[in-house]
Amino acid sequence: MKPVNQKAWLLIVPVVLCVAFSAILPLMTVVNYSVQDIISPERRVFVGTEWFKAVMRDEDLQGALLRQITFSFAVLLVEIPLGIALALSMPATGWRSSAVLVLVAISLLIPWNVVGTIWQIFGRVDIGLMGAALAALGFDYSYTGHASDAWFTVLLMDVWHWTPLVALLCFAGLRAIPDAYYQAASIDGASKFAVFRYIQLPKLRGVLMIAVLLRFMDSFMIYTEPFVLTGGGPGNATTFLSQYLTQKAVGQFDLGPAAAFSLIYFLIILLLCFILYNWMQRVGTADKTGAGHG
Amino acid sequence: MPPATCWSRPSRTAARGATDVARIALDLAHSYQRNPKRDEDYALLPLRMTFEDGGAYALLGPSGCGKTTLLNIVSGLVAPSQGTVTFDGRDVTRQSPQQRNIAQVFQFPVIYDTMTVAENLAFPLRNRGVPEDRIRQRVGQVAEMLELTGQLNSRASGLAADAKQKISLGRGLVREDVSAVLFDEPLTVIDPHLKWQLRRKLKQIHQELALTLIYVTHDQVEALTFAQQVVVMTRGRAVQVGSASELFERPRHTFVGNFIGSPGMNFLPARWNGHGIEIAGHTLQGTADTAALSAAGEFTLGVRPEYVSLALAGDPAALPAEVVQRQDVGTYWLLTARCGEALLRARLAPDSSVPRVGDQVWLRVAGAQTCYYGANDELIASADRGTGVLA
Amino acid sequence: MDERRFRKRTVFLGLYLAFAILPVYWMVNMSFKTNEEILGLFSLWPRDFTLDNYRVIFTDVSWYSGYINSLIYVAINTVVSLLVALPAAYAFSRYSFLGDKHVFFWLLTNRMTPPAVFLLPFFQLYTTLGLMDTHIAVALAHLLFNVPLAVWILEGFMSGIPREIDETAYIDGYSFPRFFLTIFIPLIKAGVGVAAFFCFMFSWVELLMARTLTSVNAKPIVAVMTRTISASGMDWGVLAAAGVLTIVPGAIVIWFVRDYIAKGFAMGRV
Predict the structure, then answer these.
(1) Position B143 in a domain
(2) Per the domain annotation, does C252 fall within a domain?
(3) How do residues B265-277 score in pLDDT, each as one tens digit?
(4) Which of B102, B114, B159 is opposite residue A202, by nearest beta carbon?
(5) ipTM, two decimals
(6) Which residues of C touch A121 (CB under 8 A)?
(7) What is the CATH number of the domain that holds C180?
(8) What total number of domains does chain B contain?
(9) Average pLDDT, stretch A3-29?
(10) What are the chain A neighbours of C26 within 8 Å (beta carbons)?
C-alpha cells in the first residue's frame, strides 16, 4: 500500500496549474456563455437553461447526433474484429516483427489533415488510385456527389487510420500471455479455434475494453479527417458532432447555443471516460490479485 | 475402500497399449546454437539417463542449470538438437507432447478462465471425443482424488492458487493413458503453509497411480522428500543421480556436496605430503584410500558440518581452529571456525557444551564420512561407506 | 495443418499491409510527378520523375516555415509536458494523498475532451493574453491533452520500479532531486521515451487548435496544407510532397522507439 503523504501535492501543483489553465478557465467560459444571451458585448442577459432546451430541440443537431452515433458504431464494428485479426497475424519475434510493427503503425503518425488529404486524393476518380480503380470497375463512384460514397470513403479512411491502434493494443496483450498457456493447450489437444476462444480472447478482454472505449470516444470527437475529406458533405451527409459544433461556434458566432451544446457534448464524453477509468481500475486490480502469474 | 483403488490402472497389468510407457530413455545433448563447440554453447551437455516406469524423480539444480530444458525435452515441447528420446524403446524424439501422452504442470497454474472446474477437467477428454458419460465419470474420480469435488461447478478463475494447480494437475490425470506427469516447479506460487499439503497429495497420487513422475525444482527439501531418485544438475550437466541418502553421504561432485545440505559441505584445500593429508600446515591421518590421494597430490577435502565434531587436542584426524562465530539455530548449534585461510562449519547438538568465540578448538574432519575431490571437482576417494545416518 | 494456418495468416497480413501502404505510396508517387502528369496521365509510378515539388517546399518560405513552426511548438510542448508530468507521476505512483484518485481522473478527462469544446474559449483567452499567433500559444494549448497522457504513461512505468530503490537511495544519503535525476529517471527511460513519443505524436498531428490559434507567424504545416485546399487550381504535386514530409519525423521517431512501443501499449495507456 502506498504511504500517505500530503506533501505530495507539491509535486502535483505544476500539472494542476498547467491543466487548469488549459481546461478550467476555458470550461468556465463555456459555462458562462451557455447560460447567457450575448446580444452585444455590452448587453448580456441571463437566460438560464433556455439554450440547453433550444439545443436539444434543434433538428440539425439531432441529425448530426444520429449521424455521429451511426458512424461510431460502424467504426467499432469493423475496427475491433479487424484489429484482433491483424494482431493475431503479426509476427511476434524477430526482425519481421519490428518491420511489420513499423509499417502497421505508420498510419497513426500521419497528421490528421494529411490523412484527410491522402484519402481525398486517393478517392478521386481522375487522379486517385482507388477512385480510378472503382470507376474502371464500372462503379459510379463520387464521394463529393453521392452521400453513400462519402460515407463509405469516410468509414474506410477511419478504418485505415485507426485499426492499427486496436491491433497494437491487442498485439501487446497477446505478447503478455505466457507460453505455458499455449503449451498446456497443445498438451490438452486443443484446436486452434479453442485456443483463441478459451485462452486468447479471455486474456484480451481488458485490452479490448480499453480499445472499444477509446475508439468510441475518439470517433465521437472526430473532426479533422472528415472535414478535410468531404467538408461535411455532400450537404451535411457527413457532418458529425464536432464539425457541427465548430460550425455553430466559429462560423455563425451563435455563442450561447454553441456553448450549451459544448457542455452537453463534454458531459457525454465525461460519462464515457468515467466508465473507461473504472473499467481500467478493475482490470488493473484483477491483474495484480490474479493467482500469481505474470 | 479408498476410491482410488477402484480405478488403479488396469493397463498396468493387462496388455500394454502403444501409449503406455515402460521407461523413458534419454541419450542426447541440446544446444541453441548451430555449431556448438565449447561446453558453454550447450544448454544440456551430452547425457544418458533412464527414468524407470512408475518412478518418482526430481531434477534439482540452481536457475539456469538446464533442468527445465531437460523436462521440456522429455515432454516434447522442445526437440533436442542432438540425440534421441525413447519411450519404451520407441523413438519419440520428434513427437509432440500430445502424441507422447505426457501431462505437464507448470510453474503457475494454467487454467481456462472462462470454464468451471468440471469443464476444465473435461477439456482434454472432450478434445479427444470421449463420450460424455465417461467424461463425467472420470472428472468425478479425479476431482475426488484431488479433493476438488465441492468446487466442480465453480468458475475456475475465482479459486486460490493451490486449487488452480490441482486443476492443472487434474487435467493431466484425467486422461487414462497418460504415460508420465512432469512438473516444472509447481509449488512456486503456492503459499508456504499449503505447500506441504500439495506435496503430500503428490506423493499420495504417486503411490496410488504408480505413474512416472518427474519433478523440477531448485529447492532441495522438495526434491529430497518427493523423489526416489534425484538428478542434480548444474550448468547443463547432470552431475549425479541418486537417492537422497546417496547424495548426502557420498556426493560425487563438489557441487552436489555444496548444494545439498544446509549448510553445505565444508571444502578444505589439501595436499599429500608423504605422511598424511596436509591442510594449512597441519598433517592429518584420514581413513581413505591413500593411493588415490598420493596420486592426486593436490586435492580438496570435503566434510559435512554434520560430521565435523569436537575432538581432543592432538587427535590425528582433527585440525586446530579458532572459533569466529557461533549461532543457536534452535535444533542445533552452528559453529564457524577459522583454520589458516579456510572457514570450517560444524553442527553441534543443542545440549553439548559449545565453545565460545575466540576459543581454540580441535575439530575432527577426516572421519568416516569425509570425501576427497580431485582437480575437476569429482570424487576420487572416500572413507568406507558410512551407514548414512542423517544428522 | 500448421503450414496451412501459417499461409492464411501471411496472406491476410500481406493484404492488410498492402491496404495500409497503398494510400501512402500513392501520395509518395504523386509527390514525384509534375502537375501535368498527375492531371493528364494516370500512372502507377512517375514516368517523368521530378524533384520540383520538394524543391518548392524547401525554397518557398511559406512552406518550409510551416514545418519549422510545427517542430518548434511540438518540441516546446513535449519538453514542458515531460517536465511537469515527471514529478506528478512520481507523486501518483508513490504516495496516496487527499483527492489523489479524483485528480487523476480529472486529468484523464482532459485527455478525452473534444477540442471543439474549447475552441472558442481558447481563442478568447489567448487573445486576451496577447499570445495569439505564437508558438507558445499552441504549445500551451496542447498541454491540455498531452500532460495527462504523459502523467498516465509515466505513472505506469514508475509503478513498475520497486519502492526499495527509493528507500535505499535515501538511506545512502541522496537528496530527492539528486535521486530523481541520477537514479530514478534512468530506470524509467523507456517510459520517458514512450511518453515523449506520444506527446510528439499527438501534438504533431493536431489541427484544430493549431489552426485556430495561429495566423501568420506561427502557422504550422498542418494549417499551411489546409489553406492550399481552399485555393482553386490545386497544386497537387506540392501538396503531396508536403504530406510526405509530414510523415518523415513520425517515421524516424517510430523507428527509434519501436521496441518500446509494445511496452507502452501494454500499459493500455494511450
Answers:
(1) no
(2) yes
(3) 999 888 888 888 8
(4) B114
(5) 0.81
(6) 26-27, 30, 236, 239-240
(7) 1.10.3720.10
(8) 2
(9) 81
(10) 118, 121-122, 128-129
